[in-house]
Amino acid sequence: MDFKGQVAMITGGARGIGRSIAGHFAKHGANLAIADVSEDAARETAGELASAGAKTMAVKLDVSKSDQVVKAFEDVVKEFGRLDILINNAGITKDGLVLRMKEEDWDAVININLKGVFLCSKEAVKVMVKQKYGRIVNIASVVAFMGNPGQVNYSASKAGIVGLTKTVAREYASRGLTVNAVAPGFISTAMTDALAENVRQEMLKSIPVGKFGTVDDVANAVSFLASADAGYITGQVIHVNGGMYM
Ligand code: NAP
Question: pTM of this prediction?
Answer without folding.
Answer: 0.98
